[in-house]
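Section 3.1: Structural characterization of target chains.
Under the original work plan, the team committed to producing a structural model for every single-chain target entering the pipeline before any wet-lab resources were allocated. The record below documents one such target. The sequence was received from the expression subgroup and is listed exactly as submitted; it comprises 294 residues.
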Amino acid sequence: MSKLMSTKLRRSFLFVPADNERLLASALAKAADVVILDLEDGTHPSRKEQARATLAHNIGLVAQAGKAPAVRINADLNTAVTDLRCAIVPGLAVVLLPKVEHPRDVQLLSSLVADLEKAAGMPVGGVRFLLQIESCLALPRLHEIAAADARTMGMMLGSEDFSLDCGGLPTPEALLAPSLMVLHAARAAGIVPIGFVASIADLGEVAQFTQVLEQARSLGFRGAVVVHPKFLDAINDCYTPTAAQISQARALVAAFEAAQAQGQGAIKHEGQMIDKPVYQRALRLLREAELFAS
């Protein structure tokens, strides 16, 4: 079984500046599965030390609200180590690693996190990694990066920094190819592909973003990171199988398995030709429904 299908799936990830108590309090009342306390771009350099000082307390607040606490650390190694020494506390679920360019980046930080988990009396390996790809340099190594460490639960493209590195703009046309590269590498490694083909800084209105999400799901993505809570319900709705979809999948699975037991291969079910890939897609939907509900 892949890591994707053996891990609790998260649909919606909300960035909150790690130093902003007001926005954090608001986020705790929103529908995010994961609240990311952002020590990187979301926190001014003059306030990073203060943000680290309150990090353990705020991680506890997120956990008490029934959400998974995450922290985005800074990319440069020296600051990343400083961030992790403050972030690895009981209750932390995910560390978002920005600007990952090499599998060794992931492995070195995973080794450090293991030491910090031991020192804090936490289960080693319990803190998971979400990898953020933000440069052209990472693209040839995506499969190695995605499979670099068992701690990794997902991978995403950072639309703004990636486009900056390319010298272009974060348009859907420019983001499609790298987004698919990230998705394919994540799927090959058995981790969760998170994202959508659009600029995170300009998602428009909810109805417009809903169309972006529908495209992302059809491509194979299974979650989204946003900076505004108004999009959370749309993300959760997109990635939560409906009762009708679950019922249809169960009926399809039952019909196909009954036909298989009688020695049949492909069958016609409710006007649709059903073969093994269609059957397996229905099984995946049912498994995802179980994981979202767990």
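The longest strand covers residues 12-17.
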